[in-house]
Amino acid sequence: MVGLALGDALGAPFEGGPLERLVWWGLGRTRDGRHRTTDDTAMTRDIAESLLACRALDLDDLAQRFARSYRWHRGYGPGAAAMLRSVRRGTDWRVARTAQWPEGSWGNGGAMRAPILGALLHEDGGAAAAAGDAVASVTHAHPEGRAGASILARATAACVRGASPVAIVEEVAAHHADPPWASPWGLVRAFLDAPPSVATLRKELGNEITAIRSVPTALYLGLSSLDEPFEHLLSRTRALGGDDDALGAMAGALWGARHGASALPQHLKDRVEDVGGLAHLARSLAGVSIDWGPGLRAAGP
Ligand code: RVK
Ligand code: MG
Ligand code: MG
User: Fold this and answer.
1) For residue 296, what pLDDT is reported?
2) Which CATH number fits domain 2-286: 1.20.1440.130, 1.10.287.600, 2.60.40.10, 1.10.4080.10?
3) Ligand 1: which atom is nearest the Cα of residue 75?
């Protein structure tokens, strides 16, 4: 959670074009001068708080928490923002999630909040992936939006278990081979051996807001940085531009899952909003037992 928050808050000033960066220059600091976290961290916190309160994966509770926590100034994706406002007005999330696109969103908003599920279910990559899918489905009904979350949750679980980067890519490739997911894994694997230029990475894997054009990129950035200082991961992510907060959040979560919050640089933790609160929440969650079975069944097919 802390790795995700650092990647999110310290990537956000580099997100988008000049206009987005200018807006974030105005909005992106707390009163005490810390870097503000965005939707990526806010929704992760919602998941943690829902699991703590329900001791199970309760998608109705989660939808209400996502909707209550929504704040325009935290930079939510446009579809997610409209969907959450609609849930706040009383629309059932199962209806609201397909109001804009018949199949739902294929954005990376499901994937960006999935690492916490991989961390909690790290002993079982399949369960982590299923939980990622279920939690994504509340706002991201599209199969690509859900698959992005499954992949990130599975990869995070494998990072906690200490698997090698190559083994993690192979595990992901073995379970996510349906189009359009088949093509990126060979590239990610090749890039681990022969790092590409920034331009090649941007062109081949992407830096966009969609799951398919950001999850493989974040996987590559995170896995290829596991044995480097966290600051390297941040500067490599910033160089890519585009959806920098989500790329930073996803890659930062993989790094954090491997090394733990105490390994993250203190000078960066001091610069980000409410890292202490997040760490406290994470410790509380690690200490309780969650009944995943009924929650996962409640997700439906
Ligand atoms: C700004 C056509 C679709 C689509 C579909 C496009 C924050 C839309 C976070 C949509 C993350 C965008 C990010 C993103 C998370 C999605 N047909 N176009 N079926 N589905 N799109 O709005 O929660 O940064 O252009 O659901 O996934 O830090 O606006 O948002 O980086 O993808 O937003 O999808 O965004 P949304 P999200
Ligand atoms: Mg964000
Ligand atoms: Mg973003």
Assistant:
1) 58
2) 1.10.4080.10
3) 1
Q: Whose CA is nearest to atom 17 of ligand 1?
A: 101
- Any idea where the domains of the chain sit in the sequence? 2-286
Mean pLDDT value of segment 168-188: 96
Span 230-245, pLDDT tens digits: 999 999 999 999 999 9
Residue entry with tokens 């199962």: 94
| Ligand 1 contacts CB of residue 39 (under 6 A) | yes
How do residues 51-108 score in pLDDT, each as one tens digit? 999 999 999 999 999 999 999 999 999 999 999 999 999 999 999 999 999 999 999 9
Assess whether the C-beta atom of 242 lies below 6 angstroms from ligand 1: no
The model's pTM is 0.96
78 lines ligand 1 (CB under 6 A): yes
**Dist CA 22 CA 28 (whole Å):** 10
Q: Which of 40-44, 90-94, 287-291 has the lowest mean pLDDT?
A: 287-291
